[in-house]
């Protein structure tokens, strides 16, 4: 096991802050008799891109669901900015600045980009006692998020159905950004995308980082995270087999850790 898995002091961000953005402390999660996570420790530094990789059934989704408030840990705990947190729901994680973009994206194809971004979260204006959706502000804000946070051009009035796979992923990311999160969790963000679309999404993830976000990518594909992540944590059969700087590890080593929990 790599020393970084347990050495939190080594994980202190370069900015001089002593606390990581997220810390997972001794987390265990069981579903009946199935142990999905066992003794998982990790820290995510502020403003880094941290990838969680693992084979099928390794526990990636369970860890993601613990981070975003879908599951509470059976034992163990989370800290955010050094303070203990216990999310009862994704809404509670959202209120603390953690947004998740799920693999299925859950976009409504026959609605336009801005409506998808703000569905359930529309800017409103009041006319006397009545609150109405402020459509002008909805389109303005959608354009601003796409241009300033993603640094892209996507027409907020165009139906989502007319967009490519990469652009659809960007719309889903923009929807997460509408809640102004500090942390964005991305679930397999480029799986099933073409090479060009993958590059578009990866560039956008780097843009998010440049714009101050902390990013956690959950993936079973090394191609998805190589050249993108700053650090990589490998889950194997529910345990964190290693956490490494991405620059210090080869694909062969990561592959071996994913399939056997050990280095070649
Ligand atoms: N809600 C649940 N109820 C029962 N068992 C579950 C539940 N969620 C996950 N598991 C089990 O926990 C283990 C870890 O599953 P998890 O989905 O977290 O793995 P994963 O790494 O995301 O796999 P995949 O890449 O196949 O999605 C598996 O054995 C899975 O069957």
Automatic annotation (TrEMBL):
A GO MF label: ATP binding
Listed SMART domains: AAA (SM00382)
Keywords: ATP-binding, Nucleotide-binding
Span of domain ABC transporter: 22-262
Domain of life per record: Archaea
InterPro entries: AAA+_ATPase, ABC_carbohydrate_import_ATPase, ABC_transporter-like_ATP-bd, P-loop_NTPase
SUPFAM superfamilies: P-loop containing nucleoside triphosphate hydrolases (SSF52540)
Listed Pfam families: ABC_tran
Name of the protein in question: ABC transporter
The organism of origin for this protein: Natrialba asiatica (strain ATCC 700177 / DSM 12278 / JCM 9576 / FERM P-10747 / NBRC 102637 / 172P1)
Lineage: Archaea, Methanobacteriati, Methanobacteriota, Stenosarchaea group, Halobacteria
């Amino acid at each position: 096991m790599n020393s970084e898995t347990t050495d939190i002091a080594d994980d202190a961000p370069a900015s001089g802050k002593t606390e990581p953005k997220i810390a997972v402390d001794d987390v265990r999660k069981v579903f009946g008799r199935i142990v999905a996570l066992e003794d998982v420790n990790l820290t995510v530094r502020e403003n880094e891109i941290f990838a969680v990789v693992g084979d099928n059934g390794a526990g990636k989704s369970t860890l993601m669901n613990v981070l975003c408030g879908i599951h509470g840990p059976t034992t163990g705990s989370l800290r955010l900015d050094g303070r203990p947190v216990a999310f009862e729901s994704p809404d509670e994680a959202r209120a603390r600045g953690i947004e998740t973009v799920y693999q299925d994206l859950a976009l409504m194809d026959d609605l336009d980009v801005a409506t998808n971004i703000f569905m359930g979260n529309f800017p409103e204006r009041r006319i006397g006692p009545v609150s109405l959706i402020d459509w002008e502000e909805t389109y303005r804000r959608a354009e601003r998020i796409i241009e300033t946070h993603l640094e892209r051009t996507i027409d907020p009035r165009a139906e989502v159905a007319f967009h490519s796979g990469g652009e659809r992923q960007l719309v889903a990311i923009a929807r997460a950004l509408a809640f102004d999160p500090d942390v964005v969790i991305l679930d397999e963000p480029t799986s099933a995308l073409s090479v060009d679309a993958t590059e578009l999404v990866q560039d956008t993830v780097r843009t998010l980082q440049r714009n101050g976000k902390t990013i956690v990518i959950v993936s079973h594909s090394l191609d998805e995270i190589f050249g993108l992540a700053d650090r990589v944590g490998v889950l194997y059969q529910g345990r964190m087999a290693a956490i490494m700087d991405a620059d210090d590890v080869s694909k062969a080593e990561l592959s071996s850790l994913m399939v056997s929990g050990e280095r070649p």
